[in-house]
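Q: Could you fold this chain for me?
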Amino acid sequence: MAAFNRYKLAHVTMFSYDGPVSESYNELRLRPRHDESQSCLSFRLTTYPASRPAAHLDYFNNWVHHFHILPEHKELRVESEATVLVHPQQWTAVPLRLTDFDQRRDALKDEYFDWLAPSQYCPVVPEIGDLTNHAESRCDGSVRGFVESASELIHDQFTYKPGSTHVHSSVRDSLATRAGVCQDFSHLLIAVLRQRGIPARYVSGYLVPRQAADARAVMENVIGGQASHAWVQAHVPETGWIGLDPTAGEFVEERHIVVARGRDYGDVPPVRGVYKGHAGQNLSVDVLVRPALDDDGAELLQETCAAPPPKLFDNEQQQQQQQQ
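A: Sure. Below is the predicted structure, expressed as structure tokens.
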């Protein structure tokens, strides 16, 4: 197990425009976090056309890179690569009863306001109350039991179906279709937990697929191995923040790599930007997440997940800026 907690990530985003555009301003959240749960050992960001990215930490302590490209262009390619060491997590199992937790709810409101208030993608709707009651009726009466029950309930009752929702869908859309993707499942779980007074936050990142050929490994490769992933962290008093993945149907393990945290997807989109021009755009994303070491502890050499970058002219090569 120890050899497989170090991972290499490659994330390529390609925008293709059906006409020339200019004055493209972009904001990225692609650099993995560096905290008690993981260490970001290296990070590199490259854009074509070339740019000079700058970085800062946002309100939630996520790394944000921003860059602009002023000349006309018909394609924009953003490549990020990182090496991450994930640290084993241990949670103390303190069986705090929901009845005892209810006596503390008022004290949590100020400290965890951002993680308790309704948000754009996680509004208060009546159907969330039904899910909350159902999750509580099938749990063991503890806070952690409720959190686990709510995650399992969403995993069991909603169908993973790409295309059933869109990037701006809220929990209302998922409740109507009873289907969605990892973003939707995470928003549903957040809404249920907040309804019960349990602080919850949205996490974007990557899921490293299992090195196996069974159905579960195939599913994980679809939901996390070929694109970015999303899950939830819930705050359980006397235990701390614990991660739950309602899409995969499990607690978060060492194969989950955190990039950013926020109230919902609106706080942490991987790529967001605007441009000047009347051209439409097509977006493609390619992600590769894999162990950095093989079974013998040797470094794996494959470095990229997509086609080679376009050949640059000499003056573009001189202007190319990489963010470490």
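A (continued): The domain at 2-87+270-319 is CATH 2.60.40.2250 (Immunoglobulin-like).
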